[in-house]
Amino acid sequence: NSDNLFRWSAHLRGPRDTPYENYYFELRIHITKRYPLEPPRIYFVTKIFHPNIHYRTGEICLDILKSEWSPIWTIESTCRAIISLMEIPAEDSPLNCDAGNLLRAEDTLGFTSLARMYTLDFARKDPPDLSDGVVIKSYLS
Asked: Active site: which residues (predicted)?
């Protein structure tokens, strides 16, 4: 099926010194027919407590996936930008208001505790093939 060329999955390892560390998170990637002129649609499959990721839909609020997209971005570099967002959330554009409010109130203990609890409940332990932090596969592979 030629549609499979446009549907990918990625597994991102949670960055060090974050509540996501040592666990991996699955993303779904839909490559549009206009890629690389327009961004891929990427969302989290794994539930995650993060201010810039919608809890139910997995939508990611990241400027390069919207208005700041450039054909220079590859799928891998985009995934690495998502890892950076996991490490340094943008408090000014929350999709998860509860997570955003905790960070804006400087309640880092509350945020970290909830994010770690969600990580333990929904993410998986780091598989051995994620040594560099990103694994991307087409549905054909």
From this structure: 61
Domain that holds residue 42: 2-138
Q: What is the dihedral of CA 14, 16, 17, 23, to 10 degrees?
A: 30
Please, what's the b/e burial string for 51-88 (b: 16 or more CB within 10 A of its CB; e: otherwise)? bbbbbeebbbbbebbeeebeeebebeebbbbbbebbee
Catalytic residue among 10, 61, 86, 123: 61
10-residue mean pLDDT series, the chain (141 residues): 78 94 94 96 98 98 97 95 97 93 97 98 77 57 40
Q: State the CATH number of the domain containing residue 125.
A: 3.10.110.10
